[in-house]
């Protein structure tokens, strides 16, 4: 049974980069926040999928690792003392009287919020699993062993025999990156042509010519061989069914992410192609008081860039404040004037 | 007479933070840029007015000095080799055949551009000058001497007798900041009540109670006394005309900025209250191929925050590319995939 509800100004669904920045923006406007995320840590995809990848398009950061950006955003939000409810999904969102909302999480936490900002990215996400019998036996053996769906630390792959499967950016980028330190890197793709960024494909081909990478094309994954605690080989087959056996310590399948906005689809919000449709001027959904920001929303002209999500979070916070206090005139301050709690001017 | 035109993909008017980030975004989409600014250095207001002020609301920078942010943005744009034309205004913008534009600057530089992004902030700006006879004789004596309209380096005011005039955020913030190191700080305001952020006013009052600041209220500036090369005193008068003479090395009048979008008003762009009206989905003005970003534009829901300007620059660049190459499908890449010139992945 849900507990006594926690009361807050704003409930933020999603603790990825955009959700974290929404906390900061709400804080600047004197609104308290509770943040819910399905993952066990803040940062969303940046923490879970590619913490060591450099990002180049965050304004004012010529380059920053995804994990570092998350740390900076968390630090920026911290003075406003948000409460995080991690490892749980919001299962229900109900409208209450007076324009408020009740949220209930999968762990039974109940939150009574004056406004809601949904910054849930692609929703709950997970890797697409290649259809091979018994693959689950090789999952969960740990980084650099068995079947891994992501690289959290490159060093886990040092000296390993690595088989990568897929033809997109992740497959190609990690092939290039791991070629430096793995014992071997073989890339299995069902077509000879890769659909990654042309520059990256070129770099991979240079490394292939230099013997640092082997392209196993056109082949598909067929089977895994090994014991209970160790992967030994990946069996692949060409279009005629002819097989090859690739010795391997670890298989990295990069077949994209399943994206599932899950319970969000059932809250009566207007959707377009699995995205929440918002008003571009306010970031408000068709339900007054429920706003969105980041990859989960759509509006005419929307670009899926983190920095757009930041701007959308600012707009959502601004309009959430108006929903909470429709009559209050807001003395609009630049951060250089008002500072943040604990800052020294 | 204008020289032979320089040909470029995009002309960016304004080298403030938003203009600099527009260079980066255009570069990511393989468009070359020429940037024109009336000031002699990049960074706009951040460089010219408050390089040492901390900013708190740049996503991923819990705190950053305005001048540092400019350096980071300049570094982020640098790999794309923009050309800067500083110390000159764009005087004319003409439409050419084929959707291109010709710009002519006040120094006679002519630029033939495929698209234009106007990121001119508040336009050419300058301080409002208090109406006092002979004030110009005391301007230009250098930092910390005579009449200054801004504080570039606090240290220039060390040990000085400082008179500040005004009742807004700048007057109050600098009174607080300079109280630490000036010989004396007197704040002249024509009303007893200050309209700065309440927290700041409170801090100023605490410093006043402690004898670090003297509030000279309600008084107005009346006259300046001194010699050719030195300010000696500021004469102020109350509403009955009763005068006081304040010993002073430097007067800092903070009566806001004049904002003047200047020649931009004459280019046939749709304006609303001295701002360029743009389509919120594309950042395009009523003239196809002319886009805007940052404080100079307006659209429903516009917030005047630097980070909004960054997002607007991304949208403007994206749509400028479409104007240049209407038929090209764009393989939309995240920066983590494509990198920037010279980056190592």
In short:
The structure is a homodimer of 345-residue chains. In chain A, 22% of the residues lie in helices and 28% in strands.
Describe this structure in words.
The structure is a homodimer of 345-residue chains. In chain A, the strands form six sheets. In chain A, strands 1, 2, 5, 6, 7, 8 and 21 form a seven-stranded mixed β-sheet that branches. In chain A, strand 19 (271-272) and strand 20 form a beta hairpin. Chain A contains seven helices and 22 strands. Chain A is elongated. Chain A folds into two domains: 6-124 and 258-338, FAD/NAD(P)-binding domain; 129-255, FAD/NAD(P)-binding domain, CATH 3.50.50. Helix content of chain A is 22%, strand content 28%. The first copy, chain A, is of the alpha/beta class and 345 residues long. The longest helix of chain A is centred in the last third of the chain and has 19 residues, at 306-324. At the A-B interface, helix 1, strand 3, helix 3, helix 4 and helix 6 of A face helix 1, strand 3, helix 3, helix 4 and helix 6 of B.
């Amino acid at each position: 049974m849900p507990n006594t509800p926690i009361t807050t100004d704003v409930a933020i669904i999603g603790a990825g980069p955009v959700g974290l920045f929404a906390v900061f923006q709400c804080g600047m406007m004197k609104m308290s926040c509770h943040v819910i995320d399905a993952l066990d840590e803040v940062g969303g995809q940046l923490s879970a999928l590619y913490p060591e990848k450099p990002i180049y398009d965050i304004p004012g950061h010529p380059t920053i690792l995804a994990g570092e950006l998350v740390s900076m955003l968390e630090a920026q939000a911290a003075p406003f003392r948000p409460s995080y409810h991690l490892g749980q999904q919001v299962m229900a969102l109900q409208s209450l009287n007076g324009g408020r909302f009740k949220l209930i999480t999968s762990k039974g936490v109940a939150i009574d919020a004056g406004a809601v900002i949904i910054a849930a990215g692609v929703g709950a996400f997970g890797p697409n699993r290649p259809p091979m019998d018994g693959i689950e036996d090789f999952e969960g053996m740990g980084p650099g062993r068995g079947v891994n769906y992501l690289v959290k630390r490159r060093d886990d792959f040092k000296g390993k025999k690595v088989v990568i499967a897929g033809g997109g950016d992740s497959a190609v980028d990690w092939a290039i990156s791991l070629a430096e330190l793995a014992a071997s890197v073989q890339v299995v793709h069902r077509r000879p042509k890769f659909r990654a960024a042309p520059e990256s494909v070129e770099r991979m081909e240079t490394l292939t010519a230099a013997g640092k990478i082997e392209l196993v094309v056109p082949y598909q994954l067929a089977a895994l061989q090994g014991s209970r605690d160790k992967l030994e080989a990946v069996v692949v087959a060409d279009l005629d069914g002819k097989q090859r056996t690739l010795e391997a310590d670890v298989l990295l399948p990069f077949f994209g992410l399943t994206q599932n906005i899950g319970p969000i689809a059932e809250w009566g919000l207007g959707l377009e192609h699995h995205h929440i449709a918002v008003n571009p001027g306010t970031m408000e959904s068709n339900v007054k008081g429920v706003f969105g920001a980041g990859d989960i929303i759509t509006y005419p002209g929307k670009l899926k860039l983190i920095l757009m999500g930041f701007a959308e979070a600012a707009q959502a916070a601004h309009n959430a404040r108006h929903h909470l206090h429709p009559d209050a005139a807001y003395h609009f301050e630049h951060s250089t004037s008002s500072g943040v709690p604990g800052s020294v001017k």
